[in-house]
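Per your request, structure below.
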């Protein structure tokens, strides 16, 4: 027992369910005093009376208190070196890490042998200083004060201006300190494991100190002591494991000696073995009691601490214990803590749980012990694959994969399907982990030799045929056909051998099925071709598809070599296979379009290096046949791109391909010219064959003109004639007109490329200007065409050409191109604006009618929406680049009001802010705000006008039910807030002042949901309004859980300055931290002084505001005068209210209490999903002691100690945990 002469560092003020006392009794180790016999047994936890009324320690006259020590201590006070060079405390030595931990610990052990008190005092101060405390425990405090008093005294020594402490400080030095801190504790126990830890003094003192610190409300103490205690426990578990091994070895030696015949049996050796076994048993009991003390006194409280980092430490270490000493810790009694913590609110803690479980499930021998845990928590683990934290989701998928590897029956089909679809995730690590799971479940060969033998019997070169068929079926059943590239990328790391088996894929596509194989359906063939093309792209480019990853990364030398090898392999194979595939599927446009993507991934040097020109000729022949057979845009564009790639000047095959391309285009242009002549001659009498001949040939030429310079064939002239004839006669088919517009556009761009690349002559510039001018005139006339596709195409081409031939054309020392600059006149600008107003801002009914009544087709609706967005974006670019006058922006913005008026007529001020209509308007406003660009000075006038008109519109009509109800149009302010970020800081103040003119005194105090638009808009104006606002906002971030910011608290005087900075800042600070405005109390400083100093007559009527809407929209000078007027009024108001505000602030006495280091334990950190229903809890009749005693597994000489454990996974146990632990710690 601990006597009154020994230090009992006990926290008597523990209120969180910690132990009342510490009662540990140990004997000196054999190495210290081998003559000591009959050592006392340590008492079991909870069976000893708590220590009380600690007496002063004996006078140190009989002890060497002043012994000179290596780190320069005297009477427990650190003596610093005068030069300040060498570290003199344990904390400094460990922090610098210049000395090996082995030597540091050995030095401490030597000092402990000389004077236990001073050595322990050194160790106590080490833990105190590692917590960031500036105080020092002196020898007098150590002898005469209780634990609680010492900790309370050290708490007062903290630096209250900073919340940082060594474990949370950033930087490599402190990261290294954490590692050194943990290593020091492990080495200390390892070096003391044979003697000192059994002396009933050192471990008692350390465990008692750490228990008291871990129960402190000071986060730094709690965090540091918990980490120290968990590492201490880990070291003790390792000692216990070694003891168990030694005990088993001793038992085997004893039994072997005892089984010898009487003549050969050595009785002395038997006695020595019995004595050794007894000593090992006693040591094991001592270690068990120590681990019980740490587990029940620290772990069971801190694994549900309010701080996520502390909880994570506990879970990480219990995982280590279960893996290191599975016989003792891998049971339901300890697994339950990991299972419960899977529901933790913080991703960091959930991540530690999953990693701890991964270490267990990796060892297949442990699966039987994990069977009950798997059954109870499998559903939770599977659900975590959809965790909002991507890191957690990845580890959850990996854990599910380990469970699958251990037992095929552990997961149901539904569980597997929940993981399957994650291969299409946009987050690549999640998708790759899901791909590994999918590979293990579906695509791994169980008997490779048998499958290879079967493939040879069938005449197949590869045994992967069935697996590829299964991959195709999986892809088709997932019904995400546009995401084949994602599926391939997900499986790339785990199934490369399968995905690179292009021989097997082409074998399945080209050859007839053998006996025992089913023929691929048309749908399966299309899917296989799509997957094959995606695998080729992945191998050739060696980076994820678009949408995954942050961009192309630099490949390592090994990856680069693999990429080159794969590219050579696929080139050699498909140079021969591709012509055959095109020949078989040339009639299928979808398959051909995919197959024609393959040549862009070829290493084209192989054609000439391998003397494979005949295969090139076969490919060109098949491409020509495809061009002649198809008129689908995607097929023709694929053919055009293939020709463009094969015609690259860097390859020797360029001449051969160029000849084939020129012959093809010559034939098409001759056919086109002949068809155009016939069509124009017959005019209205032209039949369908004439129209088809022109349209089909024009589509092919347009597709080729996109990637090839065809200006020498003068396609513009024929297209222009078709367009003029259509305008004059009004009978040109819309598809021909659309294609003619597009082809003419390409012709102009290729002519511009020629001029910009060389030194253009004046005649060239004049000729191109004439062509552009005539084409712009044709496009302008097409805006009034009766066919919508023609009008939309003409509009898009007009916007693009006006952008290309704008004033920016002469930038970059290209003044010679000035004759090509076009500035749209007012007539053209008005026509473009009217087109936007008529075709973008249309009603839903009009949109449905434009889709010919196909109201059920969601794809058509989405396509129409994208088309409208593209039209609007094309026109807004003209506004941004100052090609179209700025007032056009105001005309567009008016239609936001128009759409909003329609909603207000239906719902009034009680607008459903979550409805799809409101969300659509906000999204449109957000996108429109983005078009203003980053140059806020250029768009200052327009943005200010938008806000002015928007405020007037919001307050224009009062609510007929009375002034206490919000204005009818108030909800429009929520849309207007999307444009607040485009205001410069000075104008935000001005607009905010203008807004307050329309607000009554009661409006600023309302917090109901219907007033949220006003609150939101006002906050958007206050955010970033000035530096004071920013400082207050940054100082008022909401607290997540009860975790404090690692940056610490600002000094007290800085806080006071921030609090007294501005009225608007305090208003914003109060509103920024609140989530449900409906439950807000009226802020004390919500513009009270401003309202008191604003006379009633200064509240203007929006209808009486001087100046009309047109004045503000079309007169920039008036806009700036409005801004200037608002700024003058603001300055005057500040002068009037300045003194009153200071007086009001002094009366209010608003001060934030400096948050101390004392933090209350928060509510339980587990979510309700952990709990069973109340009915289930009532049915549970199992009773057990929640804080179990650590009972190490018996060696073969004490099997009788084994006993059955109760089921510790029941939710009722969690309820007991939440209510605290009633049993004493020791």
């Amino acid at each position: 027992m601990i006597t009154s002469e020994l230090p009992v560092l006990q926290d008597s003020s523990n209120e969180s369910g910690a132990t009342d006392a510490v009662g540990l009794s140990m004997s000196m180790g054999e190495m210290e005093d081998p003559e000591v016999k009959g050592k006392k047994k340590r008492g079991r936890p909870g069976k000893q009376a708590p220590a009380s009324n600690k007496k002063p320690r004996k006078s140190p006259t009989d002890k060497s208190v002043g012994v000179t020590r290596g780190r320069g201590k005297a009477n427990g006070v650190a003596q610093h070196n005068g030069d300040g060079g060498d570290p003199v405390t344990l904390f400094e030595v460990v922090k610098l890490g210049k000395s090996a931990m082995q030597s540091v610990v050995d030095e401490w052990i030597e000092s402990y042998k000389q004077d236990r008190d001073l050595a322990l005092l050194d160790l106590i101060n080490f833990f105190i200083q590692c917590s960031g405390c500036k105080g020092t425990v002196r020898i007098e405090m150590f002898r005469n004060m209780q634990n609680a008093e010492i900790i309370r005294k050290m708490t007062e020594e903290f630096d209250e201006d900073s919340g940082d402490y060594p474990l949370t400080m950033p930087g490599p030095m402190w990261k290294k300190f954490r590692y050194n801190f943990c290593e020091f504790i492990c080495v200390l126990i390892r070096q003391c494991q044979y003697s000192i830890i059994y002396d009933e003094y050192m471990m008692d003192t350390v465990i008692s100190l750490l228990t008291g610190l871990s129960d402190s409300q000071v986060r730094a103490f709690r965090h540091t002591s918990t980490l120290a205690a968990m590492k201490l426990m880990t070291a003790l578990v390792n000692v216990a494991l070694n003891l168990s091994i030694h005990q088993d070895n001793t038992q085997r030696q004893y039994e072997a000696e005892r089984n010898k015949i009487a003549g050969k049996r050595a009785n002395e050796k038997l006695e020595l073995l019995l004595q050794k076994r007894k000593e090992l048993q006693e040591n094991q009991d001592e270690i068990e009691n120590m681990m019980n003390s740490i587990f029940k006194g620290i772990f069971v409280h801190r694994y549900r601490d309010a701080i996520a980092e502390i909880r994570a430490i506990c879970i990480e270490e219990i995982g280590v214990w279960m893996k290191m000493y599975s016989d003792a810790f891998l049971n339901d009694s300890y697994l339950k803590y990991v299972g419960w913590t899977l529901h933790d609110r913080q991703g960091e803690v959930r991540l530690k749980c999953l990693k701890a479980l991964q270490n267990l499930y990796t060892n297949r021998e442990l699966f039987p012990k994990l069977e009950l845990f798997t059954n109870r928590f499998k559903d939770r683990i599977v659900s975590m694959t959809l965790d909002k934290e991507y890191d957690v989701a990845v580890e959850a998928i990996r854990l599910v994969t380990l469970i699958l590897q251990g037992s095929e029956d552990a997961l149901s089909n539904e569980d597997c399907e929940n993981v399957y679809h994650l291969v299409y995730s946009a987050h690549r690590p999640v998708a790759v982990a899901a791909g590994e799971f999918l590979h293990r479940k579906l695509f791994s060969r169980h008997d490779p030799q048998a499958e290879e033998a079967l493939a040879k019997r069938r005449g197949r070169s590869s045994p992967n045929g069935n697996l590829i068929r299964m991959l195709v079926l999986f892809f088709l059943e997932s019904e995400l056909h546009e995401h084949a590239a994602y599926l391939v990328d997900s499986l790339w790391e785990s199934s490369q051998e399968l995905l690179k088996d292009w021989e097997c894929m082409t074998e399945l596509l080209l050859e007839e099925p053998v006996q025992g194989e089913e023929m691929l359906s048309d749908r399966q063939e299309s899917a296989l071709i799509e997957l094959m093309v995606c695998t080729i792209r992945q191998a050739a480019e060696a980076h994820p598809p678009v949408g995954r990853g942050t961009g192309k990364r630099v490949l390592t030398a090994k990856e680069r070599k693999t990429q080159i090898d794969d590219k050579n392999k696929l080139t050699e194979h498909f140079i021969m296979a591709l012509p055959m595939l095109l020949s078989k599927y040339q009639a299928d446009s979808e398959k051909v379009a995919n197959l024609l993507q393959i040549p862009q991934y070829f290493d084209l040097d192989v054609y000439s290096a391998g003397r494979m020109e005949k295969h090139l000729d076969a490919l060109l022949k098949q491409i020509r046949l495809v061009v002649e057979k198809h008129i689908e845009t995607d097929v023709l564009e694929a053919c055009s791109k293939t020709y463009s790639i094969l015609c690259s000047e860097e390859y020797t095959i360029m001449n051969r391909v160029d000849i084939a391309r020129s012959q093809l285009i010559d034939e098409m242009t001759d056919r086109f010219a002949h068809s155009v002549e016939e069509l124009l001659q017959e005019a209205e009498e032209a039949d369908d064959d004439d129209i088809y001949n022109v349209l089909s040939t024009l589509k092919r030429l347009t597709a080729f003109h996109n990637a090839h310079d065809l200006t020498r064939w003068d396609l513009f002239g024929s297209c222009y004639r078709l367009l003029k004839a259509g305008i004059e006669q009004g009978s040109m088919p819309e598809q021909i007109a659309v294609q003619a517009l597009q082809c003419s556009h390409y012709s102009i761009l290729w002519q511009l490329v020629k001029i910009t690349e060389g030194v253009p002559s004046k005649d060239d510039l004049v000729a191109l200007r004439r062509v552009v001018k005539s084409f712009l005139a044709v496009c302008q006339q097409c805006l009034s065409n009766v066919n919508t596709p023609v009008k939309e195409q003409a509009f898009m081409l007009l916007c693009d050409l006006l952008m290309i031939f704008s004033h920016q054309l002469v930038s970059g020392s290209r003044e010679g191109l000035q004759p090509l600059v076009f500035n749209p006149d007012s007539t053209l600008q008005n026509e473009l604006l009217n087109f936007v107003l008529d075709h973008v801002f249309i009603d839903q009914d009009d949109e449905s009618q434009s889709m010919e009544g196909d109201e059920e087709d969601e794809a058509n609706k989405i396509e129409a929406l994208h088309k409208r967005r593209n039209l609007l974006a094309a026109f807004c670019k003209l506004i941004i680049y100052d090609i179209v006058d700025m007032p056009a922006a105001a005309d567009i913005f008016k239609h936001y009001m128009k759409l909003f008026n329609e909603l207000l007529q239906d719902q009034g001020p009680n607008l459903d802010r979550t409805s799809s209509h409101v969300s659509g308007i906000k999204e449109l406003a957000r996108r429109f705000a983005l078009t203003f660009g980053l140059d806020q000075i250029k768009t200052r006038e327009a943005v200010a006008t938008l806000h002015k008109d928007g405020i007037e519109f919001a307050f224009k009509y009062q609510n007929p039910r009375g002034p206490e109800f919000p204005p009818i149009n108030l909800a429009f302010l929520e849309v207007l807030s999307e444009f607040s970020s485009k205001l410069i800081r000075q104008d935000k103040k001005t607009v905010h002042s203008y807004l307050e003119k329309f607000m009554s005194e009661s409006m600023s105090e309302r917090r109901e949901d219907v007033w949220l638009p006003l609150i939101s808009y006002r906050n958007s104006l206050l955010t970033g309004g000035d530096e004071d606002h920013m400082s207050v906002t940054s100082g008022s971030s909401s607290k997540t859980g009860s975790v404090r910011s690692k940056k610490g608290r600002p000094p007290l005087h800085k806080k006071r300055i921030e609090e007294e900075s501005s009225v608007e800042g305090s208003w914003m600070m109060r509103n920024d931290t609140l989530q449900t405005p409906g439950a807000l109390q009226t802020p004390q400083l919500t513009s009270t002084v401003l309202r008191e100093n604003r006379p009633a007559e200064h509240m203007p009527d929006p209808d009486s505001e001087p100046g009309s809407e047109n004045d503000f929209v079309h007169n920039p000078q008036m806009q700036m005068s409005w801004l200037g007027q608002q700024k003058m009024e603001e300055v005057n108001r500040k002068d009037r209210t300045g003194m009153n505000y200071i007086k009001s602030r002094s009366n209010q006495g608003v001060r934030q209490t400096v948050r101390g280091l004392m933090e209350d334990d928060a509510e339980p950190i587990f979510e309700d999903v952990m709990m069973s229903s109340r009915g289930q809890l009532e049915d549970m009749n199992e009773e057990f002691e929640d804080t179990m005693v650590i009972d190490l597994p018996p060696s073969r000489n004490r099997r009788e100690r084994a006993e059955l454990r109760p089921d510790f996974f029941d939710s009722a146990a969690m309820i007991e945990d939440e209510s605290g632990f009633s049993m004493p710690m020791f």
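The longest strand covers residues 73-74.

Regards,
D.
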